[in-house]
Amino acid sequence: MNSLFFLIPIALIFVAIAVRALFWAINSGQYDNLDTEAHRILFDDDKPVRGKSEPDPAPKDDELRD
User: Fold this and answer.
1) How far is CA 16 from CA 10, 26, 30, in A?
2) Buried b vs exposed e over 33-44: b needs ≥16 C-beta within 10 Å?
3) Domain assignment present for 14
4) How many domains does the chain have?
5) 24 versus 36: which is more confidently predicted?
6) Which of 16, 20, 36, 59 has a C-alpha 20 to 30 A away from that of 6?
7) Cut 0.85: pTM above it
8) What is the spatial distance between Cα 66 and Cα 57, in angstroms, rounded to a whole number?
């Protein structure tokens, strides 16, 4: 029974911290635009990523002089 006098206030402190963090996230704009990130995965990137199996491009003249 004595442990409840310790655990209940600790649990209430954790709940208060979680609620405070939630309201901070809402007020700082974390949840303002949920559609952009959801649609971003559907579109291709502008620059294709080179795979490891592709050979390196030929070096330019400026790179050979260094």
Assistant:
1) 10, 15, 19
2) eeeeeeeeeeee
3) yes
4) 1
5) 24
6) 20
7) no
8) 17
CA–CA separation, 11 and 5 (whole Å): 11
Residues 34, 28 contacting (CB under 8 angstroms): no
Is 6 a member of any domain?
yes
Query: The domain containing residue 8 runs over which residues?
Result: 1-29
- Residues constituting the chain: 66
pLDDT in tens, 4-32: 999 999 999 999 999 999 999 999 988 88
pLDDT, tens digit, 9 for 90 and up, residues 45-56: 666 666 666 666
CA distances from 36 to 4, 41, 46, 51 (A): 46, 9, 16, 27
pLDDT band at 36 (very low <50, low <70, confident <90, very high): confident
Q: What is the 3-state secondary structure (H, E, C) of 45-61?
A: CCCCCCCCCCCCCCCCH
